Automatic annotation (TrEMBL):
It comes from Pseudomonas extremorientalis. Pfam families: HTH_3, Peptidase_S24. It comes from the Bacteria. Keywords: DNA-binding, Transcription, Transcription regulation. Residues 27-76 form the HTH cro/C1-type domain. CDD domains: S24_LexA-like. SUPFAM superfamilies: lambda repressor-like DNA-binding domains, LexA/Signal peptidase. This is Helix-turn-helix. GO terms for molecular function: DNA binding. The keyword Transmembrane helix does not apply.
């Protein structure tokens, strides 16, 4: 049997971004892989192959995912955003038509080979666009800096205090669109933009560096201690955002920037680093 060819890094990044968005929003929206499969008229196994990066995303699945999550296709695939936008702009004489009207024309002319479910999903996505839910054609163009990308928000609560168990909670900041070049100009160091995620810190123990509910930009590929810094980590089944310093061979010193909180010694073997904090998205009142 021929081994399946591995996806390119770009296509795998699309799958990872799609999975991150799905995982971060599924609980709030009451979605499962089974319900996603039903909406896309495919098997649950096929959904898993898309989200796990075995198969590349296609426009049909992207349109369904965009509609169910309420996010633009561009947030996980610029490639498919452009492709879907192309479906809604068949030629210049259609400029006055809505997205759904243009897709109906496209389906009538070229959609004979599509299943009824696929036709329905494309039309639903276009109707969602009419209501402002999808990215319009113009949004696929580069922004002012020229390299803006979407960064997904992870639905976890990272405590800057006594530790907290992740669960649902309201957020000030959801998925964001940023320029990797601008981040690097600010001194943020990372390899690929799709390694970056947003989380929210809760509590006062890291003040004034990180205030309660400040959004944090983290690199989820950092899964081990890489030097003194602020990390997202799990210890005793609780999540923390704290400074870590190596203390001897088998211990970390867990440090709070708030001087009212004393440092603690924790075992390296009981600490699981999940990400490194790269940037605090402070919102200071003026």
């Amino acid at each position: 049997m021929t081994k399946k060819k591995e996806l390119s890094p770009e296509l795998k990044a699309e799958c990872e971004a799609a999975k991150s968005l799905f995982v971060s929003k599924k609980n709030a929206l009451g979605l499962t892989q089974a319900s996603l499969a039903e909406a896309a008229d495919i098997s649950a196994a096929a959904v898993a192959m898309y989200l796990n990066g075995t198969n590349p995303l296609n426009s049909k699945f992207a349109a369904v995912l965009s509609r169910l999550l309420g996010v633009p296709v561009e947030s996980f695939s610029k490639r498919l955003a452009v492709e879907i936008a192309g479906l809604t702009s068949i030629n210049h004489q259609d400029a006055g038509l809505s997205a759904s009207e243009m897709v109906r024309q496209m389906l009538a002319a070229k959609g004979k080979g599509l299943s009824e479910a696929a036709r329905a999903n494309l039309l639903a996505a276009a109707e969602h666009s009419d209501l402002g839910g999808m990215v319009p054609v113009e949004s696929s163009r580069p922004g002012q800096v020229g390299d803006e990308v979407w960064i997904a928000h992870y639905d976890v609560r990272a405590a800057m205090g006594g530790g907290q168990i992740p669960h649902e909670y309201p957020e000030m900041l959801q998925d964001i669109r940023v320029s990797p070049k601008h981040l690097r100009d600010l001194g943020v160091t990372f390899k690929e933009h799709f390694h970056l995620k947003m989380i929210t810190g809760w509590g006062q123990s890291m003040a004034p560096t990180i205030k309660d509910r400040d959004p944090l930009l983290v690199d989820i590929t950092v899964r081990e201690f890489t030097g003194d810094g602020i990390y997202l980590f799990s210890h005793d089944d609780m999540l923390y955002v704290k400074r870590l310093q190596k203390k001897g061979k088998g211990h970390f010193k867990m440090i709070s920037d708030n001087k009212h909180h004393d440092p603690e010694d924790i075992r390296v073997d009981d600490t699981y680093i999940l990400a490194r904090v790269l940037l605090v998205w402070n919102a200071n009142l003026v």
